[in-house]
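Cast an eye over my tokenised protein here and flag anything odd:

===
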Amino acid sequence: MKHFKQRYSTPVWICFFGEFLTGITGAMLSPFLLLYLQNTLGHNLLSVLVIVGIRPLTEIIVTLVAGGWTDRIGRRTVILTALGCQVVSACGFMMVENIWLLALFYTMNGVGAGLYTPTQRAQITDSTNSGMRAEVFAVIHVIERFGATIGPVIGLAVYSCHPVMIFIFQAFAFLLYWLAVYFKMPETYPSKYQKNFSSKKSLFLFMLPISLLYSQLETNYRYLEVLFDHFLVILTIFNVCHALLGMTLQIPLVKGSEKLEMKTVIMISYSCYAGSALGFAFSSSLVWLILSIFIFTCGESILLHHMQSFVSKLAPVHMRRRYFAFSV
């Protein structure tokens, strides 16, 4: 047990803890958020979707503007700021009464997400030996998939009884994570800032279509309501299947593609993403929908894991956060 505890650094263990908490509560919320907001605000779906689009736009702006700045001030400070934004955002959603407040809290949510994810990956790279990074990224993915497996089921039960409780759970999870970072997490960023620069931004540009596809999946859940009866049940099955497939397919697909060149990995994964996008567009039955999820999961299992490992080796020490920002 002691050997297992020492296998990972303190920042990595705290990251595992946070991913476990926020992974479950995030998966509880994401399938039902649009439905909740539309029912609460009384606006048509298009109005809500326009506001929801603020989040990915904010993430892009934060990525472009804050990348170099956050690489200089340290990982711990940025993560605390990001989690603080998420706590305020989750609490704000509970009190949303008009479309403008919704826009404000969605902006804060986008700022928090845009700051957190690349900074967390940069921190893992800082505090983990090169030979262990792939394993740590894989463990994080498994934790995320575990949360995504049980989260929608819990979320369906909570949403059916008391929708606001989902936001309370999420705010509490982010607050616990913030406290763990504040009291236990050391700073991992090297104190010396080096000015040499190297870049392969052309690779990162290829991640933009993937980000757009994920945004489509997050915002267009309601199309399932048109196609299927028992919309909430189908939505829960959709998310649980995605999570279970991620847990079972990731390791064999990653192992099987370890010796492939990065350009080959990208070609295979993009073919899967394109096929799954067409599948989602023309799904007319649950079986077809699950097949599309299967193809989509194959693509993300092959690409995202290899991309994180590749970027961790490619990025200069003083620009790790910026490189990870362009790769998500």
User: Anything to note?
Assistant: The chain has a mean pLDDT of 80. The first helix runs from residue 2 to 6. The radius of gyration is 19 Å.
